[in-house]
Design a protein that fits this description.
The chain has about 450 residues and is mainly alpha-helical. The chain is built from 16 helices and 6 strands. The chain has a domain of about 70 residues. Strand 3 and strand 4 form a beta hairpin. Helix 7 packs antiparallel against helix 8. The longest helix is centred in the C-terminal third of the chain and has 21 residues.
Length: about 450
């Protein structure tokens, strides 16, 4: 009780005036956040489009944050908004078990590690425990009157939330989570591939290797290899997927990776987006490149220093970071939805990809892989762009603007910039800003954490 009271009093009293961290640039970032947030709340440029959270959120969900004012910690406000909207997290999004659940819950773990606040870990555990029995076998789940079903792992998307199973095993050593994670791991045995080893996005997408899928399956594998076993395969698979995609889909050493690649000869299903001479998709989509940058930097944070592909992945990260520095919008600090066509008509700043790039660059600096003095401005400007695309609504909840609510590989530029799924609170954007703000705000959050509340 005293520990929780201390945390609450500290937040309410505003004892921390800014983000305090190892890196000096983090201290300077948050000074303009409050003003930027107020500006964003009053902006007339924020589009009035569909609210993706509204359909499944608890009616009347609210928090005590003041509309038009910046919260002390954006990461905490975003997490609390998710919990307020969905006390039962399986009711969020398009299915009970999706990649977005795992993506968001990874951000919840960041907050748990930073604050020691058990509510974040409890929220993760309540979600996962609905899907497995006392032996760790997946059990049927029903929602919205649909027939009961267990999660399927014939696609890479659903593997992402396997990361959360490994997470809970790390904290609890409960064999149920290990057993369930092993079910996900076995799904990769015999999984269909292209001739270069690239994993199909799903069993049914013959020959299609999407950049998204590298994040979805390899975020699971690197954690499984680190904490459960089979590390040689897990680390070799993850580094191999990342390296092979760069060789296949990078645009001329620029660090810009197109959204998908296609290899014919695996069936007669038409792939409309693949260019006939290369099999590549035409554009560099911000969220797709974001998935790739996240898994690259997280893999570098996990694999051994002497892994044979480490130098190759470090070089990829530096090329991507340099490409992002070149393509960052000087006016807003964000990145466009088609990353490398900043000046083309119809392009717009994507909060989801921007958040992913902020996290990647910050993590790269923390790992000593990116030069702080060179990349500090990119992080600072990127954070400003994120804040300008968020606001506290009249129910005290965080709303995130300017992102696509799920998008497959598109046939051309116009289909990316004019897609009909632009939305407020696009699920990937909400998770992305949680990651970005959590990594930057971590030092300040840790200052408020009771010294005896240590996590693994």
């Amino acid at each position: 009780m005293k520990k929780n009271a201390r945390w609450t009093r500290a937040r309410q009293a505003g004892l921390v005036s800014g983000v305090i961290g190892v890196y000096l640039f983090v201290q300077t970032i948050t000074s303009g956040w409050a003003a930027a947030s107020a500006q964003a709340a009053a902006s007339t440029n924020v589009p009035e489009v569909k609210d993706s959270a509204a359909a499944s959120a608890v009616p009347g969900a609210h928090l005590d944050y003041a509309p038009g004012k910046a919260p002390r910690f954006w990461s905490v406000a975003v997490a609390e908004t998710i919990m307020a909207r969905w006390p039962d997290y399986k009711l969020a999004y398009h299915a009970p078990w999706t990649y977005v659940h795992g993506y968001s819950l990874y951000g919840f773990e960041m907050l748990y590690r930073a604050t020691g606040e058990k509510k974040y870990l409890d929220y993760i555990k309540r979600y996962i425990d609905q899907f497995i029995d006392e032996k760790g076998d997946f059990i049927p789940i029903t929602r919205n009157g649909r027939p009961p079903a267990v999660p399927s792992f014939t696609n890479q998307d659903n593997m992402m939330t396997g990361n959360t199973l490994v997470m809970l095993y790390e904290y609890t050593k409960d064999e149920r989570y290990k057993n369930a994670a092993t079910t996900v791991r076995k799904a990769l045995d015999g999984y269909p591939r292209n001739s270069n080893g690239g994993l199909w996005h799903s069993h049914g997408l013959h020959g299609q290797w999407w950049i998204d899928g590298i994040f979805m399956s390899q975020m699971f594998l690197i954690r499984y290899g680190k904490s459960i076993g089979d590390s040689e395969y897990c680390f070799d698979e993850a580094t191999g997927q990342i390296a092979a995609y760069a060789k296949t889909a990078e645009k001329g050493g620029t660090g810009m990776m197109v959204h998908g690649t296609y290899e014919p000869g695996h069936g007669d299903r038409e792939c409309r987006w693949a260019l006939p001479n290369t099999g590549l998709s035409p554009e560099v989509w911000s969220e797709g490149l974001g998935w790739y940058t996240l898994v690259t930097v997280e893999t570098l944070a996990t694999i051994p220093k002497d892994h044979p592909r480490r130098a190759e992945l470090e070089a990829i990260l530096r090329r991507v970071a340099a490409g992002l520095k070149r393509t960052q919008d000087p006016k807003t600090g964000g990145w466009f939805t088609v990353v490398d066509k900043q000046d083309q008509s119809g392009n717009w700043i994507d909060s989801s990809g921007t958040a992913m790039f902020v996290y990647t660059i910050q993590k790269g600096v923390e790992l000593g892989l990116l030069d702080k003095s060179e990349y500090a401005p990119a992080v600072e400007k990127g954070l400003q762009a994120i804040v300008n695309l968020m606001k506290i609504n009249d129910r005290g909840l965080v709303d995130v603007y300017s992102a696509s609510d799920g998008l497959s590989v598109q046939v051309d530029y116009d289909h990316y910039v004019n897609n009909p799924r632009r939305a407020v609170n696009a699920k990937e954007a909400v998770a992305g800003v949680l990651w970005a703000t959590a990594i930057v705000e971590r030092p300040a959050l840790e200052k408020l954490r009771p010294t005896d509340q240590l996590t693994n």
